[in-house]
Each structure stands twice: as structure tokens, then as C-alpha cells.
Specification:
The chain is an alpha/beta fold. It folds into 2 domains: 175 residues, Isopropylmalate Dehydrogenase (3-Layer(aba) Sandwich); 120 residues, Rossmann fold, CATH 3.40.50. The chain is built from 11 helices and 12 strands. The strands form 2 sheets. A 10-stranded mixed sheet has the order 2-1-3-12-11-4-5-10-8-9, with helices on both faces. Strand 1, helix 1 and strand 2 form a beta-alpha-beta unit. The longest helix is centred in the middle third of the chain and has 17 residues. The two termini are 24 Å apart. The model has no long low-confidence stretch (mean pLDDT 95).
């Protein structure tokens, strides 16, 4: 029986890469029943809402979604789409794998970054401070770190490591300066790490040193776990080490729902031109299949995708080739055998 999955094609190049991904999954024999919904500017155009209730209802029903890039409308009254989805479904773990497909400066990178997705500076507690006659003389943003949030994200990182045969978890923090908020995160991380002692290695890195070591010797890192803002920055850094956001998938995981996505933008300059690389969404769909228990098929698709890139004969232009989205998709499908 097909598995129901909410499909949100998105904006810009989203519909094109979503269709390519759907074709590849169908060719691989994935039994998915797609419930197509809209969000972003497509949601505004249809429902005057970037996150329509029908889309949220679909995710509540299926508990799994595959999402293309979305454009949040500019102007008051419109919510940040990604933040709203995280809050609505308590998607506390953002998982961003980055690994070498075609060796460039680095030849042996295989990092999974696990980012706390709901707390920290991005929790949205901020206000202006009046000084004298100026009501906006200063602005204050509050970083909120909870014991509960810290424990569940660090535990997720260790459990992910065990489930995927990973050897080490690196916890990244700034507890040397932010002794309360980051100190709590570090203390909780150390407590959780003791439960996995002997099964998964554990180390700690201060955020600024971590940023440096990632560009000097990234091959030494395996699973990395950190707080929201640091994770946002480091996830783009590790993506850059392996070729950029065009090959960067992401998963947002909660207890009751999971949303898989291409983490790049909508690229409106190339929308509708059949030139976009669908790779990030294809790899996100592989993560989705693994989440659904179909890991063998996910690996088959991943190998076909990687083999097509390594062959170097049919590549989209961001990868150095001249092929369009459809031609590249056809090549991946052919590589499935």
C-alpha cells in the first residue's frame, strides 16, 4: 500500500526540481501517494496565506512532507514559513549531511550536522529598548536554552550516530563566554554523552575554533551537534566544503512529523528555464525514504545520482555541464538500471 506523503513543490525552481524528484522516485519503484499542497508565494496566490491551513492539515495527516524552496512574502502579517513549520510541528532536530561526491579541495568529507531547531536566538523573543525620547534606541534579543531542548537534541545526535554506524559526536558551544545559556547546553551534553560512553566517542569544540578546524581538517569530524544559530551558520559552511547548497539536503525531525527539504533558495533568475539542479531535493527524498524504512531504495537512488555526477557526461551547469533539469533527471533514471 502506498505511503501518503505531503508534497510542497515550492516557488521559483521548486516545481521543476520537485517534478524531477518525483520522477526519480517513481522510476526506483518507491510506493508513494503524493498529496500535493502549496505554500510560500504559491500559497499566497491561492489562499492569501504562505502556510495555508490545508497544507498544515495534510502534514498532520501524513506526518511526512517533502518540500521545495519557499519564498516568504515581504511585508507585515506574513510569518516566516520555516520558523512557523518548526513551531507548529515541534521539529526540533535539523539534520544536514554533507559528503564528498566529486573530490575538490577536500576528498574525504562525510559530516552530519545536527542543529537544535526551536530554541536559542531564533526563538523570537526580542524587543526595542527606549532611551530618552528614542523608542528604538536599542534592541534586545534573548537566547533561550532549556534543559529539555538541549537533552533531546544531543540525545538525537548520539542515537543518530549509533543507528548510522557513526563513530564520534562533536558538541559545539560558546560556554567560555555565554556561561549560563551555552553552559547549560554543554553541561547537558556532557551528561548525555556519559550514557553513550564506550559506544560513541565524544568531544567538545568552541564555535570559533570549530569554524577554523572545519576548513583546515574537515575529515576529522563525523556527527556535529550544536545550538540553533551556530548550527545555521555551520551547516552552510559544511555544505560549502562539498560544493555548495545545490547538493545540500536537510531534514526537520520531530516526534510527530518530519519535513525533508532542499535547503537552497528559490533561484528566481533560472525558474522555468529547465536548468536547475534537482540534487538537493533528490538527496532529501533519499533521507525521507530512510525515515520511512526504505533505506535500500534510498541507497539505490543515491548511488545512481552520485554515479551520474561522477561520470561527468550529463551535468547541470552549476556542476560544470550544459544539461538541463530534464536531461539530468533522465540520466539519473537510466543509471538506476
Amino acid at each position: 500500500m502506498p505511503t501518503p506523503v505531503t508534497l510542497i513543490p515550492g516557488d521559483g525552481i521548486g516545481p521543476s526540481i520537485a517534478e524531477a524528484t518525483v520522477r526519480i522516485l517513481a522510476a526506483a519503484g518507491a510506493e508513494i501517494e503524493w498529496d500535493r499542497q502549496v505554500a510560500g508565494m504559491a500559497g499566497v496566490a491561492r489562499w492569501n496565506d504562505p502556510i495555508p491551513e490545508a497544507t498544515l492539515d495534510s502534514i498532520r495527516r501524513t506526518r511526512v512532507a517533502l518540500k521545495g524552496p519557499l519564498e516568504t512574502p515581504v511585508g507585515e502579517g506574513f510569518r516566516s514559513i520555516n520558523v512557523a513549520l518548526r513551531k507548529t510541528f515541534d521539529l526540533y532536530a535539523n539534520v544536514r549531511p554533507a559528503y564528498t561526491i566529486v573530490p575538490g579541495r577536500f576528498a574525504d568529507i562525510d559530516i552530519v550536522l545536527v542543529r537544535e531547531n526551536t530554541e536559542g536566538l531564533y526563538i523570537g523573543v526580542e524587543h526595542y529598548v527606549r532611551i530618552g525620547d528614542d523608542p528604538k534606541a536599542a534592541a534586545e534579543s534573548v537566547a533561550i536554552i532549556t534543559r529539555h531542548g538541549s537533552e533531546r537534541i544531543v540525545r538525537y545526535a548520539f542515537e543518530y550516530a549509533l543507528a548510522h554506524g557513526r563513530k564520534k559526536v562533536t558538541l559545539v558551544h560558546k560556554a567560555n563566554i555565554l556561561k549560563f545559556s551555552q553552559g547549560l547546553f554543554l553541561d547537558v551534553g556532557r551528561m548525555v554523552a556519559r550514557e553513550f560512553e564506550g559506544r560513541v566517542q565524544f568531544e567538545e569544540r568552541i564555535i570559533d575554533a570549530m569554524a577554523m578546524h572545519l576548513v583546515m581538517r574537515p575529515e576529522q569530524f563525523d556527527v556535529v551537534v550544536t545550538t540553533n544559530l551556530f548550527g545555521d551558520i555551520l551547516s552552510d559552511e559544511v555544505s560549502g566544503l562539498v560544493g555548495g547548497l545545490g547538493l545540500a539536503p536537510g531534514a526537520n525531525i520531530g516526534a510527530n512529523a518530519a519535513i525533508f527539504e532542499a535547503v537552497h533558495g528559490t533561484a528566481p533568475d533560472i525558474a522555468g528555464k529547465n536548468v536547475a539542479n534537482p540534487g538537493a531535493l533528490v538527496l532529501a527524498a533519499c533521507m525521507m525514504l530512510e525515515h520511512l524504512g526504505d533505506g535500500t531504495r534510498a541507497q539505490r537512488i543515491r548511488h545512481a545520482f552520485e554515479g551520474t555526477i561522477r561520470a561527468g557526461t550529463v551535468l547541470t551547469r552549476d556542476l560544470g555541464g550544459t544539461a538541463g533539469t530534464d536531461e539530468f533527471t533522465d540520466a539519473v533514471i537510466a543509471a538506476l538500471g
